[in-house]
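User: For my dataset I need records formatted as: sequence, then structure tokens, nothing else. Please produce one.
Assistant:
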Amino acid sequence: MLTINPNEEKTIHFAVELNGIGCKEMNGHVRFAVNEIEYGFPVFFEGDEILATIPPLSDMFEGKLKNGTVLEARLDLSSPEHNYYFNPWSDEIQIKMPVSVEAKIMEDPHDGGTRRPTVRVKPLTERKRKQVAKKKVSKPRPLTEAGWSQKKLQNVTEQQIYKYMERAGTSNKTIQEIVYNEAVSKAAEAGDKGNLGILRQVVKALKKPK
């Protein structure tokens, strides 16, 4: 069973061994359900590893996940081109809150109602671990702010979509292909035809969650 601190980002690493198919032909998600709603987080292939980054869940669910909550999780991999589907991993994920203590000075009813300051205290043994320094990725701007005219949007090419991903901070060719292929599938499902529909899906995929 995996544990996740809902206040921090979590990267899950999978060792992968592919036979008969290359990683460039695959895309996938780590999925789990909360209150009967399924959430999916895209995975990326790096050498012989698959990486899935789970953003801070407390931001997504606004504190609705309680300590000790157990979620059923799985890894879905697919190759739309070959119509393959794989489910190589499933497990439980437990929400584990960090230990903390919060102290608040009570207002003294005899001091005329003067407002007292609030004091928060945390045990020294529960300091946050230093996070590994990560490469900063620029947040893609909306298309209208990125110098894309209406005419240019209507005639956008595949090459321009790849250049957009590179400007947005996704320069790894393998990851670019995964994002592009997934955008093609989602645009087709949404009935959003053409390269403009693909570009919209790429923008959604690269947009960081708030």
